[in-house]
Amino acid sequence: VRARPPRLAEWLLAASTAERDRTALLGDLQEEFAGRVARHGLRSASRWYWRQTRASLVPNLRRRLRPRPVVPSRDHAMTSLTQDVRLALRLLARRPLISTVAVVSLAVGIGLSAGIFSLLEAVVLRPLPVAAPGDLRVVLEVRERGMNHNFTYPGFVAYREAQESFTDVVALSLVTAALHDATGSQMVDGELVSGSYFDTLGPRIRIGRGLADADNVAGAPPVAVLSDFEFRRLFGRATELGGRSVRLNGVEFAVVGVTAAPFRGMQLGRNARFWIPLVHQPVLEPVGGESLLSRRTASWLTVIGRIRPGVSNVQAIAELEALDTGLTQRLADREPRFALVPGGQGDSGLPGQTGPSLTLLLGAALLVLGVACANVAGLLLARAGDRSREIAVRAALGAGRWRVARLLLIDALAVGLAGTAGGVIAARLTAPLAVSLFAQFGEPVTLDVVLNGPVLAFAAAAGLLSALSAGMVPVLRGWRSPVLAGLADGGRSATSSAGARRSRRLLVTAQFALTLGVVAAAVLLVRSLANVRAVPTGLDVEHVALVSVNIGAAGFDAARTRDYIGRVNGRLAALPGVRAAGFGRVPPLGFGGSRMTVMVPGYTPEPDEDMEINYNMVSPEYFDALGIDLVSGAGLRPPVAGGTRGGGVVPIVVNETMARQYWRGRRAVGQRLHLSDTALLEVVGVARDVKYRNVLEAPRPSFYFSVARAATVPDGVFHVRTYDDPAPMLDALRHAVVEVDPLVPLSAVRTLEHQLALNINRERVTTTIGAALGATALLLSAVGLFAAMAGLVAARAREMGVRLALGAVPATLARLVLREGLRMALWGGAAGIALALWLGTVIESRLYGVGPFDPLSLGGALALLAGVALLAAWLPARRAARVDPVQVLRVE
Amino acid sequence: MLGEFEQSVLLAIAHLGEGAYGVTIRQEIERRTGREVAIGALYTALDRIERKGLVRSRMSDPTPTRGGRAKRHFSLRPAGARALRQSREFLNRMWEGLEPDLKRSRP
């Protein structure tokens, strides 16, 4: 067998060598290689071959890329096309700085657009990786105030039996459990699911099996399916189950299957890592040892069904409403009403919450792309100027308009291709960063942002459109008479021709018009966010830390829970720097809360009034610990030992809104009211209104009663009010709480400030990305203006030299240039006002405390534009002032 | 005026006569100067001097040791010989009178 030279080296040589010499060169090397193999052995010969290859690449490439005179060819379409492309690339390399600016501008524009599009694709467009996602429906119950997703377990079982609209329905509930592994334990998300979850939804199973109905019967052995991510994290590259198990909340679950990536459960954005049959709910959610499975009053399940072919939503809803299955907790003599929504993305608020923002941001990113296109068009104009003589000659020799247009468009496409490639890379790098900004209900969001077909197609389309629209600028300029346009300039570069200057000026003006729109909208968002931050919450936001605990996991009874809460409060309050510490069930600004229906004697609710109101179970120190002032009456006193739980009158503190609404004009303290289950409450105090779930919610009635009266306290939050910034104390607080009883796991330790930031995360993310887009638009416009002014100064150097020679003061020339730059920017800004106003109305719904027509924001944006324009024109202006008349005039 | 490498290539072709093609030219220069010559650089130079009209080339039949590839044979054209002589003369004139000094200073 004859020894072969290294294939890769041979291929590199073949690719780089000029075609004329390819055969001879490769033959020579192979001949010598064969000789060397015989004398020195294969290894040495291969090394030699590689050395030759390396040393030959540079001369080979230099030879191939060396410019040759371009001869207008006979129209052999393809050969002339490749020539045009080669020429375009060569010219691109000849003006490296301007080419880089254009390519980078385009890459930034496409990167931003494609990056945001990839988020939109992952959040809104892409269905979950399940079988036929289009057939899935989420069942909702329609209530006066919005929708409810949650149903009872007995209701679900009965409904599943009776219904015929769906091939099957499944129930699931998100659960967080402590997973113990070699490195300790951590809280992980998973789903409690009904038996047919996997068969009905059809995510791919990589190893083993999914769950079955037989796993979801009382007394069935505990089994779990793990996600691909979790299985790999725990067991590495194992491809068999091999009797493995996981410990969740201290209970062993045998692993019976592993899903294939990227399935993460039926709640988009959440990262479910395990699936457990619903019957094990009491183990995973220990609420005082009580099971939710048999309760007809506990609505805790999401129901998703796969609709039968040919059955319409209307039919399925009619059946749901006709079947009286107790699916939903019955409320006050009302027939439950239902709705179905597409379930291809599972049951997640994420698309609805972030989709509109992302669409908006995508629009803004496309405007930024428009600004970038103007930079590209500027480059192409300048390049067309460089080639004006060549083009004129071609035209004179008989090249038609289309031929010349093609030449210019190929230029544009070369830039477009390079920019798109850069943009795709930029999008790949930045999209995950953007995902990390997102949070849903204070939890980080898990999204698989990928460069898949739709994203790449979007980037390619954006790149192509950008290149073509930018390429049209020089084409249209030369359209009327390519010969004259080129030759009439008498060999001067076309940047000096009045027409080209006008085009360039128009481009910069258009850039600034778009930029004003984006910047004005960004300024509106920034102001709106500042307003949101300034909304009074009624809480001492700067001085409170929150320590969330999961008391249920420790399995305490009521007495021990009371004792625990009291001891932690005491321990925290005794720490240096702490002013007060108190416990509450519901964290402030934590999105969620508890509601109870109340009946107020002497108060007649409006027909549709919601009498289910917010409440919180707190320790007496709670009000002091959050800085909530009592307006009248007293606070909650610790109940007498051996207390009155379950009987007697329960003292409550109500908020101002509740006092005002139910006892208008009367003294609230001393008033009594009932819960639906006849328990009697008496108002002992009135506290100032505070924000309960969200910063932007309207004040609503709410009340507090002592946590000591609660039968079970599954979880809650210790609120610690400090004298100074609580952030540095978080570790000390964590340790203090753990020391009191290490059995109770902590779920989060953060400042109230942080909680507030999470609460307004959506506003923050939109504003952050919006501001980044505005800044990018400004930067791109500045670059465009700079390039245009620099070109202008270079083109008018002769004129300026003459002026200087005739006695003009250099500073006057600099001012001339500055004024010209400023004028372009401000004309653009003025033209952009309409766009800015329109964008303002588009984002109106998400503005807080500032209207879409805000003169201050608009003025601020214009001032920003002017400032940036002056900066960008500064260097060219200096150059104008330093023109050396002698040098310039000598050229003449 | 010829470049140094172009001169070396032309001289190698002159030495080799009938047998001048890529392999032999490369080896001739390496043997005489001790410097390794990249085949890519050689062909670039050959292309250049051929276009200047100093050498001519013709393809020969393919052989199996070369993986079935043909050789390109090179031979000196009169203009090439002339250019070499001129270069030599030019350098000689510049050297005149210097040889003893430079020989002493460079061991």
Your description of this structure?
The complex is a heterodimer of chains A (892) and B (107). The radius of gyration of chain A is 36 Å and the shape is globular. In chain A, the strands form 4 sheets. In chain A, strands 4-5-10-7-9-8 form a 6-stranded mixed barrel. Chain A has 27 helices and 25 strands. In chain A, helix 2 runs antiparallel to helix 3. The two termini of chain A are 71 Å apart. In chain A, 51% of the residues lie in helices and 16% in strands. Chain B has a two-stranded antiparallel ribbon with strand order 1-2. Chain B has 5 helices and 2 strands. With 107 residues, chain B is mostly helical. Classes of the chains: A alpha+beta (892), B mainly alpha (107). The interface between A and B is medium-sized, with 27 and 24 residues.
Précis, in short:
With about 900 residues, chain A is an alpha+beta fold. Helix content of chain A is about 50%, strand content about 15%.
Q: What summary fits the major beta sheet of chain A?
A: 6 strands, mixed, barrel
Query: How much of the polypeptide of chain B forms β-strand, as a percent range?
Result: 5-15%
How much helix, percentage-wise, in residues of chain A?
40-55%
What is the strand content of chain A?
15-25%
Number of continuous helical runs of chain A: 27
- Strand runs of chain A, count: 25
Q: How would you sum up the major sheet of chain B?
A: 2 strands, antiparallel
Radius of gyration of chain A: 36 Å
**Within the largest sheet of chain B, what's the order of strands?**
1-2
Low-confidence blocks of residues of chain B: none
Primary descriptors:
heterodimer, A: 892 residues, alpha+beta, 6-stranded mixed β-barrel, globular, B: 107 residues, mainly alpha, two-stranded antiparallel sheet, 2 strands, elongated
Q: What layout of secondary structure does this protein have?
A:
The complex is a heterodimer of chains A (892) and B (107).
Chain A: H1 7-16, H2 19-40, H3 42-65, H4 77-94, H5 96-125, E1 136-142, E2 147-148, E3 150-151, H6 153-162, E4 166-181, E5 184-193, H7 197-201, E6 205-208, E7 223-226, H8 228-235, E8 245-248, E9 251-259, E10 274-277, H9 281-284, E11 301-307, H10 313-322, E12 337-342, H11 350-386, H12 388-396, H13 401-437, E13 439-440, E14 443-444, H14 453-479, H15 482-487, H16 498-534, E15 544-549, H17 551-554, H18 558-573, E16 578-584, E17 594-599, E18 612-618, H19 622-626, E19 630-633, E20 649-655, H20 656-662, E21 672-675, E22 680-687, E23 702-706, E24 716-722, H21 730-740, E25 746-751, H22 752-759, H23 761-795, H24 797-805, H25 810-842, H26 855-881, H27 885-891
Parallel strand pairs in A: 5-10, 7-9, 18-23, 20-22
Antiparallel strand pairs in A: 1-2, 1-11, 1-12, 3-11, 4-5, 4-8, 4-11, 6-9, 7-10, 8-9, 13-14, 15-24, 15-25, 16-24, 17-18, 17-21, 19-22, 20-23, 21-22
Chain B: H1 4-16, H2 22-33, H3 39-51, E1 55-59, E2 72-76, H4 78-95, H5 99-105
Antiparallel strand pairs in B: 1-2
Helix pairs in contact in B: 1-2, 1-3, 1-4
